[in-house]
């Protein structure tokens, strides 16, 4: 069974570079880390609290990509 997913243009280009003769599914599967190596997302909470400029820069980049990929602004 297959599923349709959406990825940003940047991610698509990265996958395309690594793809070669493999399927996109194979490339994605090869690049996913095992569950025991994944960090709890909550461990990143507050990581940028003292980096207001960096945080604003990241938020603006996310907003631009969201608009470009999905045609709707970040709220």
Written overview of the protein:
This protein is mostly helical. Helices cover 51% and strands 0% of the residues. It has a domain of 36 residues. Helix 1 packs across helix 2. The longest helix has 19 residues.
What are the defining features of this structure?
75 residues, mainly alpha, 3 helices, extended
* Molecular shape: extended
What kind of sheet is the major sheet?
none
Report how far apart the termini are.
34 Å
Structural class: mainly alpha
Radius of gyration: 16 Å
Number of helices, counting only DSSP H or I runs of 4 residues or more: 3
Mean pLDDT: 85
The poorly predicted ranges are none
Helix content: 40-55%
Share of residues in strands: under 5%
Number of strands: 0
The helix/strand order is: HHH
Task: Itemize the secondary structure elements and their pairings.
Blueprint: H1 9-19, H2 24-31, H3 52-70
Q: Concise description?
A:
The protein has 75 residues and is mostly helical.
């Amino acid at each position: 069974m297959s599923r349709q997913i959406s990825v940003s243009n940047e991610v698509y280009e990265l996958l395309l570079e690594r793809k070669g003769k493999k399927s996109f599914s194979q490339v994605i599967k090869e690049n996913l880390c095992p569950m025991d190596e994944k960090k709890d997302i909550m461990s990143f909470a507050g990581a940028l609290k003292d980096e207001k400029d960096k945080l604003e820069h990241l938020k603006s980049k996310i907003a631009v990509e969201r608009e470009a990929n999905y045609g709707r602004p970040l709220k």
